[in-house]
Amino acid sequence: MQLQKRINAFVKLGEFISQFSNDVITKDDNIEYNDIFFDGFKHQLKLAQEHNGWFSQENIKFALKSWSDALTKESLNKWISAYNFDNVSPKQVAIIMAGNIPLVGFHDFLSVLISGHDVLVKQSSNDKQLLPYLAKYLEYVEPSLKGRITFTEEKIEGFDAVIATGSNNTARYFEYYFKGKPSIIRNNRNSVAVLTGNETEEELESLSEDIFRYYGLGCRNVSKLFVPKNYNFEGFFKAIYKWHPIIEGAKYANNYDYNKAVYLMSEFDMLENGFLMIKEDQSYASPIATVFYEQYNNLDQLKEKIKTENDQIQCIVSKGFIENEIAFGGTQKPQLWDYADSVDSVEFLLSI
């Protein structure tokens, strides 16, 4: 199957997805096979929201907007230009997907198919409504993909390589179970922001997007702040206030109330503003509705600490602090070449 055909198929998928990424879903009569798929995908969006209380309509549309923006001919061609696809021998690649945010495993799915391999997908029960429907659309716009995409809820078998994402505990299981196969195994990571106290209100407001998007459930969400000694959080709380409606979500509110009660009963020191708690803690993974912080005395020492603990960190949000940092507000807008855990999955797929 020609690489260009695969690219064209995903470009058409991006055009199809774009109809569902705005506040008002509007049918575009110029989209291929819309009469077959448009109403059905609207229904899948409704099912996804009903099935998983964390998948709000706003967050599903945000995820779809991110993918419709990424699946352009320009972006796809720029992404694949770094690789040589000439000598690919098609293999069966299994993907075990997480389910923490909508379509969280889509990049792996895209990478396998773009690389010329067949894909065997085992989805999380938390996120199983959207991708199979989009895969069916792909098979319509590019019939040569038929038979190359398989979804299963059973034990995965008959695969040549695997990309698996899970918690630290499941990652250890994956490493043992798949030790005889080429693999990428991902475990828990979190993202951090380094503040100096010189941030503008606009920068801190942008940081709130990194914290609250997807209710903070993604590995690219900022769950920890590094702040200078005696940092004043007043400006931070003021800048993030626009997100206060998040507490109206029942699941988020329940977590907020529970974690606040735990902190109060344990007599932990913390700051809170009615929808977010700030707690001093050396850990990277903070509970929902909580952001941890750690104070530093010296930026050079902090840089060394972060380098030492890099295997726990997905993204570093800062301004002029470190190489490969992400600008405030940018964590949930990765490019196709921004790989999870900095592991180049396409390079891996071309090597198997």
UniProtKB/TrEMBL annotation:
<dbReference type="InterPro" id="IPR016161">
    <property type="entry name" value="Ald_DH/histidinol_DH"/>
</dbReference>
<dbReference type="InterPro" id="IPR008670">
    <property type="entry name" value="CoA_reduct_LuxC"/>
</dbReference>
<protein>
    <submittedName>
        <fullName>Acyl-CoA reductase</fullName>
    </submittedName>
</protein>
<dbReference type="GO" id="GO:0008218">
    <property type="term" value="P:bioluminescence"/>
</dbReference>
<keyword id="KW-0521">NADP</keyword>
<dbReference type="Pfam" id="PF05893">
    <property type="entry name" value="LuxC"/>
</dbReference>
<dbReference type="GO" id="GO:0003995">
    <property type="term" value="F:acyl-CoA dehydrogenase activity"/>
</dbReference>
